[in-house]
Amino acid sequence: MSQTEGARLFRETWIAGVHQHFPGEPKAGYVTPWGDTPQWEREAAGAVYAQVRQFVEASDGHTSRLSREQKGRFVATCWTAQMFKHFDDPKPGYVADWPDLPAWQQETDADIFEVIEKAAT
């Protein structure tokens, strides 16, 4: 799968996770379709997809032994690095540490890891 396809997989999994885990009606920006996603966000999604895929491949698929929390933390940390790359002064919510993320976002990040993990193995 190309990085562009991986970025799209990341975004589609994010949207599905928001619909599944977000309490109530999510902000429109949380579920913006791929075609309307800003370029910086597409690039960030592609970078995080590649990082997760490389991590899974480098462990010979043994990431299946990680907890959902460990998987979600990895995605969140990779995303935070992308926010610092793309913004000089990112919003605090874009770079919040794992314990400060809402439960719905933690679950969505873990979903993203598991979908990429499945695609990579």
Question: Would you mind describing this structure in some detail?
Answer:
With 121 residues, the chain is mainly alpha-helical. It has one domain (3-20, 39-120). The protein has four helices and no strands. α2 (39-58) crosses α3, α2 packs across α4 (103-120) and α3 (68-86) packs across α4 (103-120). The longest helix is centred in the middle third of the chain and has 20 residues, at 39-58. The radius of gyration is 13 Å and the shape is globular. The N and C termini lie close together (12 Å). The mean pLDDT is 96.
The H-and-E topology, N to C, reads as HHHH
CA-based gyration radius: 13 Å
- Helical residues, percent: 55-70%
Structural class: mainly alpha
> Which sheet architecture does the biggest sheet show?
none
Instruction: Based on Cα principal axes, name the global outline.
Output: globular
Strand content: under 5%
The poorly predicted ranges are: none
* Count of folded domains: 1
Oligomeric state of the chains in view: single chain
Mean pLDDT: 96
Cα-to-Cα separation, first versus last residue: 12 Å
Task: Tell how many strands the DSSP assignment holds.
Answer: 0
The number of helices is 4
